[in-house]
Amino acid sequence: MSTHAVTRQDFDQYMVPVFAPAAFIPVKGEGSRLWDQDGREYIDFVGGIAVNALGHAHPSAVKALTEQANKIWHVSNLFTNEPALSLAKQLVENTFADKVFFCNSGAEANEAALKLARKVGLLSGIAGKNQIVAFNNSFHGRTLFTVSAGGQAKYSKEFAPLPSGIQHIAYNDLDAAKAAINEHTCAVIVEPIQGEGGVITAHVEFLKGLRELCDQNGAVLIFDEVQTGVGRTGSLYAYMNTGVTPDILTTAKALGGGFPIAAMLATDQFAQQFAVGDHGTTYGGNPLATAVGDAVFAIINTPDILNGVNERFTYFKAGLEKINDKYQIFREVRGAGLLIGCVLKSDYAGQANRINALAAAEGVLGLIAGPDVVRFTPSLIIPYKDIDEGLARFERAVAQFTQSVAA
User: Which HAMAP family does the record associate with it (predicted)?
Assistant: First the structure.
């Protein structure tokens, strides 16, 4: 390892400028707290953007990683491995799915799902059955295919020509879906809660309507649960709250508790339409990632953890509403489980980033979901004392913000 003293300036000198990271560098995490290079402590309400589901350095995850690191790291897809099979078994036994494809990121999982849907359309024998319906303000990843499926032009407009055959319609608008979905539709891809799009929950009637339209037209219904999956909403997967079962589900983020891993889950009806060589990945399902994922999934998939997420949502939301009663900056506090969005009133439109910058200065880390929504995605097991301390720090930031606006 280099002995070069690493500073934030090194990012500007050496890294491709697709991110604008904070001025400080976190160097240690424990539970729901982080420390930077100067030893300053932060309450972490970001959780790696809904990734660190068990917080930082959870003993079970560390144990799984270190034990596997002393066995075998990588064997290529010429072989399978024990941790991958163990995690696949857990996923199948606890969801609607029959088969699992492992990869490294949510974008890769969605890429696999969309490719599979295109093949399903091809094998249907219906000419031109290759159209994909997606939704405005959705987010499905950063590959060219998934950024095209995402409904936010700011992420795709500079990379044209984009893959064709993708139509975006209004979220939660069943009439728009009825007009768009037809015999040429091979897939509908939807987030049960739009995370990046503003923490907006799909209406159950809307999802049920999509299910019926897909069944009527022989289209694959894909649920993107990259952000909502693995306990984030208080159920193992958000589809379980809706009474609607997808054909394909994508999961990532919390699946590895911070170690990069993702998966596409599918029923046999569709999974079997992929043949050997149709799709692949070098690192997907590697023993390190799946060993950690196996441990993390087993911990989260318990009544105590999932019930605790719902209890923390009630507690966290009440704390935020108490702050809002005092400062009147939010129009709404919404979400499910520990995916929480605080929607700014129109008077404060576009100020979510500024509020988070003030919060970081006070020692609590938050997110945005667009310019008008402050978002929180902390550890699913965040201690209540850390919620209290984080909200106290956040309130100080809100007080500064309202004072500066008034001035």
Answer: ArgD_aminotrans_3
229 touches 223 (CB < 8 A): no
CA distance 271 to 153: 31
Is 281 annotated as a binding-site member?
yes
Judge whether 9-58+303-406 and 72-300 match in fold: no
Q: Is 282 annotated as a binding residue?
A: yes
pLDDT digits (tens, 9 = 90+) for 156-168: 989 999 999 999 9
Q: Which residues contact 357 (CB under 8 A, 6 or more apart)?
A: none
- Is there a cis peptide before residue 371, judged by omega within 30 degrees of 0? no
88 SS3 class = helix
* Residue 107 annotated as part of some ligand binding site: yes
227 in a known ligand binding site:
yes
Which is it for the CA torsion 61, 63, 68, 74, positive or negative?
A: positive
- The answer to the question of whether 226 is labelled as a binding residue is yes
Establish whether 113 is an annotated binding residue: no
Q: In what order do the strands lie in the sheet with 364-365?
A: 26-30, 33-36, 41-44, 364-365
- 72-300 adopts what CATH topology? Aspartate Aminotransferase; domain 2 (3.40.640)
Task: Give the whole-angstrom CA distance, residue 397 versus residue 366.
Answer: 11
Q: How confident is the model at residue 406 (pLDDT cuts 50, 70, 90)?
A: confident
| 142 labelled binding-site residue | yes
Both tokens of 36, joined, read 């930077």
C-alpha torsion sign, points 278, 282, 287, 290: negative
**CA nearest to 273, candidates 120, 156, 63:** 120
Give residue for tokens 């309507």: 209
CATH number of 9-58+303-406: 3.90.1150.10
Residue among 195, 183, 180 at smallest CA distance from 341: 195
Q: Is 393 annotated as belonging to a binding site?
A: no
Task: Tell me if 189 sits within 8 A of 166, measured CB to CB.
Answer: no
Domain residue spans in the chain? Answer: 9-58+303-406, 72-300
pTM for the structure as a whole: 0.96
Q: Is 276 annotated as a binding residue?
A: no
Is 185 known to sit in a ligand binding site? Answer: no
- What was the pLDDT predicted at 3? 57
